[in-house]
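Model the whole thing, not chain by chain.
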Amino acid sequence: MIRNYLAAALAVAALFLTVPAGAATPGVGECMDCHGDKTIEKTLPNGQTVSLYVDLQAYRSSVHGGNTCVTCHADAKAPHEKLQKVSCGKCHGDSEKSYAMSSHGIMRAKGVTDVPACHDCHGMHDIRKPQDPADRTFRLNIVATCLRCHKERALEERYPHLPDHKMLAAYEQSVHGMASKKSGLMGSAVCVDCHGNHAILPGDQPRSATHRQNIPTLCGKCHPGILEQYEKSVHGKGMRGGIAESPVCTDCHGEHTIAKVHDPSSAVSSRNIPKTCSGCHDKEAISTRYALPKKRFSSYMDSFHGIAVEYGMTKAANCSSCHGVHDILPSADPASTVNKANLPKTCGKCHPNAGPNFAKGDIHVDISPKKAMGVFAVRIFYTIFISALVILFALHVGLELYGRWNRRKEKAPGGKERPS
Amino acid sequence: MSRADLAAGKVIRMSLLFRVQHLLLTVLLTVLAVTGFALMYHENFLARWIIELEGGVHSRGIVHRTAAVLLMANLVYHAFYMLLSREGKPELRQLFIGRQDIDDFLQSLRYNLGMAKEYPRFGKYGYKEKFQYWGASVGVVLISVTGIMLWAEEFSMLFFPKVVLDLAIIIHGYQGLLAFAVLFLWHLYNVHLHPSVFPMNPSWITGKVSAEWLREEHPLEYEKLKGEGLL
């Protein structure tokens, strides 16, 4: 009671006397008089109760522990009613600015309350440095922090434009997810490495770090050697040249589901890569627009390599065994592994005897009169020959039965004259 | 021919050695067809099932090639037997195709159409058997050659451009289909469904046929045996 009077008196004094503001601000100890009580709480209009307890120890060991309460809660007095919202941007202006441009920030500015503000990711009184393993934004803790909301189906229902929550959670099983979660590797990509932190935006916005146009550079941050190869490839050049259909990293490797190449579930595993490549290369529109050879998928799948791979012989050649991986070039390019001049070397990786003589002619056999007359002719010949033979058999059998039926009354079963 | 056989009216048509060769051929061709067509029609669900059953495409290959080696051994043995042995040489002579076979064929057509009174009088092997025998022989040789080319693909690559191996695959597969059509439709009809033998010509198991059947279907052979006092 006395404290209340004292506070009131001080407030009155402050009104009349131009006492410096600092004189009225409470120290940490004073705040803790109330907020050190574990039972202190307030009731929201909707009946929910919120604890107002502050763990002094956690605060002291936080990155802000050297400050006082009023550094953030500038309008705090003892005692006080509801305080104004803490503005982190007072000190962290850049972060606030980039947050304001993010989808989280934009939504928040519109008054949506279930998008994260600073404290939802960073915490409140216990904020530590991101380098501190105990912090929520420490590299190995980031995924759990983001997935706290993004794993929720409820969230997906409220915001239908968000990707499937399963897709987001699939990251945990991906090569990046396993590397950070299982192996504890600091170098593996976590959410913020690709999506950014404060400036996070959906991938369909050109400013987003995960926009198609930015993907190769983004992945190249950690995979610079691969990026260098990719930039020289037909896909890389096409992509940089503004051909939207030219594949970027994620088109072949996937995003959250990205897996090791030896993992059978990987889109680029030996078993799956024909399907992945033909996702574009078996499309009539794409082959026509870019004057690419057609029937690459079916001609491969019907080849011995294709059948072997289809049935799990991963040793057999798949698309990338001959065409290369990140460094794919059109066959007309003299540096291409499938350039006529380089074919003996490329085939020779597995078939040492396959010389220039062997590499003559088409590798993908498109059985048509224009592309492979010999094979086409032999197949037509056999088809006609076998069909004709079967028809003749049927006629012969029919005729024989007809003859026997006509002579059924005669003595011998064949209707033949018995030798006397 | 034993006395008991004669008394029962039986005549030997296939000696034990021929029956063994025939049985081997039957089993091996079946194995080769099952494993081979599974590969040729690999996208078919039945083929998928068969390949799974065989333990994958790799062991399918091992089964196919093992059967192929045995079949080729059988073929080589048969060739030597027909060319050199006392039993084989006369058999081979009787299997040669001549003008008579064409005449027989045409006459059987006329006869069945009711345009001729006489059914052709066949020796031990009529045109049906000869067509079957030589068709299968040529087929097995062709399919063996292409099969070896594909099996020894590293060796083939030394000499042939890829298109030759592409042709070999096509020939190998379609020759197999041809053999299958001939054996399944033609041969099985002749030895199982033909009214004179239905439900089965037993000679592939017992080696024997009835003298009665021989007289009706192969009268010249019947008369020859009779002339030799063997009946």
